[in-house]
Amino acid sequence: MFSPAKVNLYLRILGKRADGYHALETVMVPLTFGDDLILEPQPQGITLTCDDPGLPTDDTNLVVRAAKRLQEVGSVTRGARIRLRKRIPLAAGLAGGSSNAAATLRGLDQLWGLHSPPATLHEIAAALGSDINFFLQGQPALCCGRGEQVQPLPGTLPGWVLLVNPGFGISTRWAYQAWAAAEAAAGLTATPPEVTVLAHALAQQDLATVGRSLYNSLEAPSLRKFPVLRLLKETMQAAGAVGTLMSGSGATVFGLFAEAPSAATASATIRARFGPSMWTEVCRSSQTSEA
Ligand code: C5P
Fold first, then answer.
1. What backbone phi and psi angles, to 5 degrees, belong to 5?
2. Substitution candidate for ligand 1 out of 143, 173, 216, 222 with most atoms within 8 A of CB
3. How far apart are the CA of 21 and the centre of ligand 1, in A?
4. 6 is catalytic
5. How do strand 46-50 and strand 79-85 relate by DSSP bridges?
6. How many CB atoms lie within 10 A of CB 72?
7. What is the pLDDT along the chain (291 residues), one digit of tens a residue?
8. How far is ligand 1, taken at its centre, from the CA of residue 158, in Å?
9. Which end of the chain is more exposed for a tag (fewer CB within 10 A), N or C?
């Protein structure tokens, strides 16, 4: 199973909910870049291995939690061996863990011949996290609630995406708390752009307008705490990006480019200026999976 990364082209926090989560309006697109999962039958139990030693493979991993939940819901007695080839950086705002969980649900549903209705997989997904439902759908979407309510959007993101990760992670929980603290201190801040402008630009495949409509409520507090993120954005803009933004809760920032060569040149410039340990990847939007 291919397990794509995502970027958020828009993420507006509407407020804090009674359950502690934040109410969102976000537009996400899946990318051609991602991880691979190999799923094989075994008589019983769930075994996860990963080529990245930094990732815990015990019962706390979303892949294992998704597999065990599907076993319970589907009354499955058989097991599965899952090998994860990790390419998506961890705690990077690219939703690698959520994507892996969605690929596990879809893959094991096939492997075990369950033919679960989409609603059943969506219910399991929503209980496990906020971004997993988006990956079950697998196409550009407007996501609401705490992120788990997915409305597919017509059209797609044209052009090329340059992902840049500075090599440190940002905790999603910290990013939301930093937003809440900044909001409490500043009171009413500038009104974000309306999401309808971005949705319309995607439908028209109008990259210039997409570039001007990017927005993320979580970006400002992170740019203040980690100034390198601002420098990375400025470098991509100077190299011809039509827009730049931090994805999700960061720390990955991305630039949108009309042409592949300009994205590649921007990537080379960033590695030359900030050091080769800066992680970069050029990819595109994908629409590979179905509900
Ligand atoms: O649901 P998920 O595991 O993706 O969320 C991780 C953390 O991010 C939550 O525990 C919460 O602190 C924060 N979060 C939030 N509002 C959201 C999504 C996530 O406050 N809509």
1. -80, 165
2. 173
3. 6
4. yes
5. parallel
6. 10
7. 999 999 999 999 999 999 999 999 999 999 999 999 999 999 999 999 999 999 999 999 999 999 999 999 999 999 999 999 999 999 999 999 999 999 999 999 999 999 999 999 999 999 999 999 999 999 999 999 999 999 999 999 999 999 999 999 999 999 999 999 988 887 656 678 999 999 999 999 999 999 999 999 999 999 999 999 999 999 999 999 999 999 999 999 999 999 999 999 999 999 999 998 899 999 999 964 443
8. 29
9. C
Dist. CA 209–CA 274, nearest whole Å: 29
The tokens for 212 are 């001007």
d(CA 78, ligand 1 centre) in Å:
32
51 labelled catalytic:
no
